Amino acid sequence: MIVKSAEFICSNTQISKLPLPLKPEYAFIGRSNVGKSSLINMLTEKKGLAKTSQTPGKTQLINHFLINDTWYIVDLPGYGYAKISKSKKEDWNKFIRSYLDKRESLQTVFVLIDSRLEPQKIDVEFCNWLGEKGLSFVLAFTKADKQSAVKTDQNIAKFRKALLASFEEVPPFFITSSENHIGRDEILGFISQVNQN
Ligand code: GTP
Ligand code: MG
């Protein structure tokens, strides 16, 4: 797929104010700082489209970006960020989960996992929740440029094994690096196939 246009549409804290669910939508979620916003910028080849930061907790709203006038990428706030209050964390959690659970136009959730880490409980639990809700999701292992391919493959194998405790089949996965554009063609190819169905 060629990305001809990518434009910021809106940021929201209220589900009632989201764009009408008339176009296929793909949400990017994962722990704070895992690289969601960077991946969106890499896919669209627009550096400043989604705001990125070295400080976790940068994205705090549901952000809609319209691609090629036909489908949306949604940048979500990260989960598991330690430095915010418990009540704020719970508010976000409720808000994001209700968005994911209720959004009719949501096609696939991209769960971003830091490829440098051993399986993290919070990521496995989040995948389990998506599974319980019957939501379709894929995995994107981020920051693959930061270590050897062997290490990345080992961590992916461990994560897939962790999921097999609750899933019969593990979802498709992508290896990505926003630094050097790894995984771009594969992810855009996947989205374009889903859009055609
Ligand atoms: P929140 O919005 O805070 O939840 O974070 P996020 O998941 O959107 O992460 P963001 O894209 O802002 O990136 C966090 C940091 O990781 C930034 O300093 C990025 O430059 C860096 N980063 C993201 N992706 C990659 C990558 O593929 N490779 C490398 N080397 N660094 C990356
Ligand atoms: Mg972000």
TrEMBL record:
Record SUPFAM superfamilies: P-loop containing nucleoside triphosphate hydrolases
Domain EngB-type G, first and last residues per copy: 22-197
CDD domains associated with the record: YihA_EngB (cd01876)
Listed name of the protein: Probable GTP-binding protein EngB
InterPro entries xref list: G_ENGB_dom, GTP-bd, GTP-bd_ribosome_bio_YsxC, P-loop_NTPase
Record family assignment: Belongs to the TRAFAC class TrmE-Era-EngA-EngB-Septin-like GTPase superfamily. EngB GTPase family.
Species of origin: Mucilaginibacter gynuensis
Membrane-spanning ranges: none
Coiled-coil boundaries: none
Keyword Cell cycle: yes
The keyword Cell division belongs to this UniProt entry's keyword annotation: yes
Alphabetic keyword roster: Cell cycle, Cell division, GTP-binding, Magnesium, Metal-binding, Nucleotide-binding, Septation
Cofactor list: Mg(2+)
Primary role: Necessary for normal cell division and for the maintenance of normal septation.
